[in-house]
Amino acid sequence: MDFDVVIVGGGLVGASLAAALKPSGLSVALIEGQPIPGSNAGWDSRIYAVTPGNAAFLEACGAWQRLDMSRVQPVEQMRVFGDAPVFGEARAELDFSAYQIGALELTFILENRLLQQALWQELQQQDHLTLLHTARCTALAWHADAAHLKLEDGRELRAKLIVGADGRDSWVRQQAGIHATPTPYQQHGVVANFSAEKNHRGTAFQWFQPEGILALLPLPNQMVSMVWSVSPERSAELLALPHDTLCAQVAAASQHTLGELHLVTAPAAFPLRVLNLQHITAARLALVGDAAHNVHPLAGQGVNLGFRDARELARVLNNRGAQSDCGDSHLLRRYERARREDILSMQLTTDALKHLFNNHNPLLRSARNLGLAFTNRFTPLKKMLARHALN
After folding, report:
1. Residue 380, CA distances (Å) to 101, 252, 279, 385 in order
2. What's the CA gap between 304 and 391, in Å, rounded?
């Protein structure tokens, strides 16, 4: 089983990369340990914000147009609240509007499972692609001319390039000897979906609070998706609450902006951390998505960084010219250089915001809320930030 590219991990980023390589002429294998996603009428608790730039990328991959758009919510406005009043206002606030920057939307909110199904439907129609689902890797070795990958069922694959798209605890990254210790934030992200009493009107809300950062992202049918970054102790408390009590606490923490809330999907939690790798490529290896970087979810940019990885790696491989070896070190360095600034700037920004607002120093509290209020009143800066977030 000889291939040009073997992608390990068929999640959103790995699947989008496989789809984006369709025009490359390369033989590609995609390995995924889970079964092909099936249809499910229930709502998925894993919700992502997808930027317009990445929506265009997914459309070019053939997946976006396969979505049931009745389950996709465009976000036209975003309201960010600080944790103290400034300039006599009730609370420092920063507002973003798609209308102000001449865009139709700031982002799209949709379910992980919905997008996963669309990607895999497209992949099943793709030539020069071998899908190996419910397949598990057991050994990986690199040689001068190729990498050799062994599966649990005894099959062996040979590839000029291995792509690790297998998540935050990447097995491929470990096999490559790329060891980096993630820095835990001592926070958990608690997620759940709710139906809301009041119409969200396509608005995403975020509150910076002393005990953590709460976001309510709009979904269709007057629903919202919650991401609440809190301490592990507070996370355990929230998960143990009766559902009615949880709804009441989330409504209170969100200033009852959307009225009463009713739980739609059971809450879940995951630990938050940052992972910064010095290199995301090695000999015949490229890392993408969470295998290459972890960021705090406060900006909703984790999956978008991963899609931009897939976009850039596909661009490099599709435009490789006369280079027949897609695992050539010059090609891989081109990909790494192109991604370095975007990854680092997002990690630094989210890390700085997390530490700035998770700090009880009264001087910092005043400074961060003044910063929010100033940015809100300085229209050119606000527009620049909003446009940057569209990519």
Report:
1. 10, 33, 35, 9
2. 9
Band (388; pLDDT cuts 50, 70, 90):
confident
Residue the block writes with tokens 């894993």: 46
Cα(119)–Cα(288) distance, integer angstroms: 17
Region class of 62: left (phi > 0), else alpha (psi between -120 and 50), else beta: left
By the 8 A CB rule, do 52 and 307 touch? Answer: no
pLDDT confidence of residue 195: 98
pLDDT band per the 50, 70, 90 thresholds, residue 35: confident
Each residue's pLDDT tens digit, 288-337: 999 999 999 987 889 999 999 999 999 999 999 988 999 999 999 999 99
In three-state secondary structure terms, 319 is: coil
The CATH superfamily of 2-36+124-180+277-352 is FAD/NAD(P)-binding domain (3.50.50.60)
Rounded Cα–Cα distance for residues 308 and 351 (Å): 20
What is the per-residue pLDDT for 61?
Answer: 97
Classify domain 75-107+185-272+359-388 at the CATH class level. Answer: alpha beta
How do the domains of the chain map onto residue ranges? 2-36+124-180+277-352, 75-107+185-272+359-388
Segment among 141-150, 151-160, 173-182, 345-354 with least mean pLDDT: 345-354
pTM for the full predicted model: 0.94
First CA to last CA distance, the chain: 37
Give the Cα separation of 342 and 296 in Å (integer): 15
Question: Which DSSP string do the residues of 229-268 spell out, in sequence order?
Answer: EE-HHHHHHHHHS-HHHHHHHHHHHTTTTT--EEEEEEEE
